[in-house]
Amino acid sequence: MRIGPQELIIVLIIVLVIFGPKNLPKLGKMFGKTMKNFKEGMDDVEDDGETKKTEAKSEDEAEKKDEE
Protein backbone atom coordinates (compact mmCIF):
# COMPACT_ATOMS: atom_id res chain seq x y z
CA MET A 1 0.00 0.00 0.00
CA ARG A 2 1.40 3.37 -1.00
CA ILE A 3 0.85 6.78 0.46
CA GLY A 4 -0.25 9.15 -2.27
CA PRO A 5 0.12 12.93 -2.37
CA GLN A 6 -3.44 13.51 -1.16
CA GLU A 7 -2.98 11.35 1.92
CA LEU A 8 0.35 13.03 2.67
CA ILE A 9 -1.21 16.50 2.47
CA ILE A 10 -4.03 15.45 4.80
CA VAL A 11 -1.57 14.05 7.35
CA LEU A 12 0.55 17.21 7.19
CA ILE A 13 -2.53 19.40 7.76
CA ILE A 14 -3.57 17.31 10.76
CA VAL A 15 -0.05 17.53 12.21
CA LEU A 16 -0.05 21.31 11.66
CA VAL A 17 -3.40 21.67 13.45
CA ILE A 18 -2.37 19.47 16.38
CA PHE A 19 1.13 20.81 17.02
CA GLY A 20 0.87 24.32 15.61
CA PRO A 21 3.30 26.14 13.33
CA LYS A 22 5.67 27.12 16.16
CA ASN A 23 6.36 23.52 17.21
CA LEU A 24 6.86 22.04 13.74
CA PRO A 25 10.61 22.87 13.53
CA LYS A 26 11.17 21.30 16.96
CA LEU A 27 9.18 18.26 15.91
CA GLY A 28 11.17 17.93 12.68
CA LYS A 29 14.49 18.21 14.52
CA MET A 30 13.39 15.61 17.06
CA PHE A 31 12.26 13.25 14.30
CA GLY A 32 15.57 13.69 12.46
CA LYS A 33 17.59 12.89 15.60
CA THR A 34 15.42 9.85 16.25
CA MET A 35 15.99 8.52 12.73
CA LYS A 36 19.75 9.15 13.02
CA ASN A 37 19.93 7.27 16.33
CA PHE A 38 17.86 4.43 14.89
CA LYS A 39 20.17 4.07 11.88
CA GLU A 40 23.26 4.15 14.12
CA GLY A 41 21.70 1.47 16.32
CA MET A 42 21.00 -0.71 13.30
CA ASP A 43 24.60 -0.30 12.14
CA ASP A 44 25.85 -1.26 15.61
CA VAL A 45 23.72 -4.40 15.57
CA GLU A 46 25.08 -5.36 12.15
CA ASP A 47 28.65 -4.68 13.28
CA ASP A 48 28.14 -6.74 16.44
CA GLY A 49 26.78 -9.61 14.39
CA GLU A 50 29.79 -9.56 12.09
CA THR A 51 32.27 -9.46 14.96
CA LYS A 52 30.51 -12.30 16.69
CA LYS A 53 30.75 -14.35 13.50
CA THR A 54 34.46 -13.67 13.14
CA GLU A 55 35.05 -14.39 16.83
CA ALA A 56 33.17 -17.68 16.50
CA LYS A 57 35.29 -18.63 13.48
CA SER A 58 38.53 -17.86 15.30
CA GLU A 59 37.36 -19.91 18.33
CA ASP A 60 36.51 -22.84 16.04
CA GLU A 61 39.92 -22.63 14.42
CA ALA A 62 41.62 -22.54 17.84
CA GLU A 63 39.66 -25.64 18.94
CA LYS A 64 40.70 -27.49 15.78
CA LYS A 65 44.36 -26.65 16.42
CA ASP A 66 44.06 -27.84 20.02
CA GLU A 67 42.60 -31.16 18.86
CA GLU A 68 45.52 -31.76 16.48
UniProtKB/TrEMBL annotation:
Location of the region described as Disordered in the Swiss-Prot/TrEMBL record: 40-68
Membrane association type: Single-pass membrane protein
Localization per Swiss-Prot or TrEMBL: Cell membrane
Gene Ontology annotations of biological process type: protein transport by the Tat complex
Keywords tagged on the record: Cell membrane, Membrane, Protein transport, Translocation, Transmembrane, Transmembrane helix, Transport
Entries under Pfam families matching the protein: TatA_B_E (PF02416)
Chief site of localization: membrane
InterPro entries in alphabetical order: TatA/B/E, TatA/E
Bias-annotated ranges (Basic and acidic residues): 50-68
GO terms for cellular component: TAT protein transport complex
Molecular function GO labels: protein transmembrane transporter activity
Family that this chain belongs to: Belongs to the TatA/E family.
Entry function: Part of the twin-arginine translocation (Tat) system that transports large folded proteins containing a characteristic twin-arginine motif in their signal peptide across membranes. TatA could form the protein-conducting channel of the Tat system.
Oligomeric form and interacting partners: Forms a complex with TatC.
Protein name per Swiss-Prot or TrEMBL: Sec-independent protein translocase protein TatA
